[in-house]
Amino acid sequence: MKAAYVGITSPGSTSRMRAEWLRKLTPGWEWEWMDTDPPLQDSARVWRTLAFRAKRGHAVNRINEMVTRRFRDKSLDLVWVDKGVFLRIDTVRDIRSRTRRLVHYTPDTAFRANRSSHFESTVGLYDVVVTTKSFDVDDYKRRIDPEKLLVTTQGYDPSIHYPRHTDDERRREALFVGLAEPDRERCIAALLRHEIPVRLGGRGWGPFVYRYRSNPLLAYEGEDIFGDDYADLLSKSWVGLGLLSKKFPELHTTRTFEIPACGAVLATEQTSETTVFFNDSEALFFTDHASLAARLGPLLRDDTVSSLSETASAGKRRVVADGRDYESILAAILSDARLSLP
What does the alpha-carbon distance between residue 70 and residue 77 come to, in Å, rounded to a whole number? Predict the structure, then answer.
């Protein structure tokens, strides 16, 4: 079997994690990785910005030229495209003509914040289209045969996301790593007002961190925290904040499973999906920032932290038992009857 993976394979990225698990799950297959990130990152900033905002310009041209060149004269059994928002229709048609089965996977919303005219024009060319966003299902069904659609959940990498520290080594704090958004800033501000230590990481937090620069309860770890560094931070903190984006109706995120996988307590918003994944003994649910702060304070100040330890352990057991890891999720996709793979 010959296969190709088209997507970002930069170390620490979730797409790299998926690429590695696909290769582990298919011993004996010949995999070729086609990294779409270098043509983007090697372009001038103006072209990168235009690519992200409008999905066009010099950087997008370079990505398509690289992919087309790499597929020249190939004949494959499977091509897995991860987040194909930059691939034009001529590129996808060329890939389609060179492979027996074509899969598209994205952990992102496809018709809101990450909308791409390229993807919308090519989505019908794939044999199987995988989404983790249940709120996108109707949009997909308006564009493709519903039989092609496969809905799964976000996941975690068990080779990276696992407990790395003992309970005695964990810090009595809440941790959030991710992009700054207004609602997330309001959440962190509420925790600080209730004298709860918070550790932050991710992009866009500069102005917020500056405003709270004199507050000893706030620690900032920097912008780029991925892979092992991210998992280590989670493993050192008692509580991980599974804050959802408000740019679209997100119901769960990768943090939903990465946090408990690392042995921290998941503090997450109560949604129709998070309450299916966990019960009250496996996660700490909240509906507003004030209620979150009111619950976190006593738990973090408890001399024994026994309640936190029990919740963390129960959450870890649940994600393992339910197969929320990439190995289980990708194995299920590869074995789907619509792909007819050996």
Answer: 16
Average pLDDT, the chain: 96
Percent helix, strand and coil across the chain, each to the nearest 5: 45, 20, 40
Q: Which tokens belong to 83?
A: 């987040």
Distance of CA 319 to the CA centre of its chain: 15
Evaluate whether the domain defined by 167-321 bears CATH number 3.40.50.720: no
For tokens 């194995």, the residue is 331
User: For the packed helices 326-334 and 14-25, what is the interaxial angle rounded to 10 degrees?
Assistant: 60
User: Tokens in use for 216?
Assistant: 């000893």
| 174 neighbors 241 (Cβ within 8 angstroms) | yes
Instruction: Assign domain 2-154+325-334 to a CATH class.
Output: alpha beta
Alpha-carbon separation of residue 164 from 14, 167, 233, 261, 324 (angstroms): 19, 10, 9, 11, 19
Closest listed residue to residue 283, CA positions, set 269, 294, 293: 269
The model's confidence at residue 140, banded by pLDDT at 50, 70 and 90, is very high
Beta-carbon contacts of residue 274 (< 8 Å; ≥ 6 apart): 242, 251, 252, 256, 268, 283, 285
Residues carrying CATH 3.40.50.2000, the chain: 2-154+325-334, 167-321
Residues 262-284: tens digit of each pLDDT:
999 999 999 999 999 999 999 99
Amino acid at the residue 136? D
Residue with tokens 């509906």: 287
Give me the residue label for tokens 């088209």: 6
Q: 80 is written with which tokens?
A: 């897995």
Rg of the chain on CA atoms, in Å: 21
Strand order in the sheet with 171-177: 218-220, 198-201, 171-177, 237-242, 265-269, 284-286
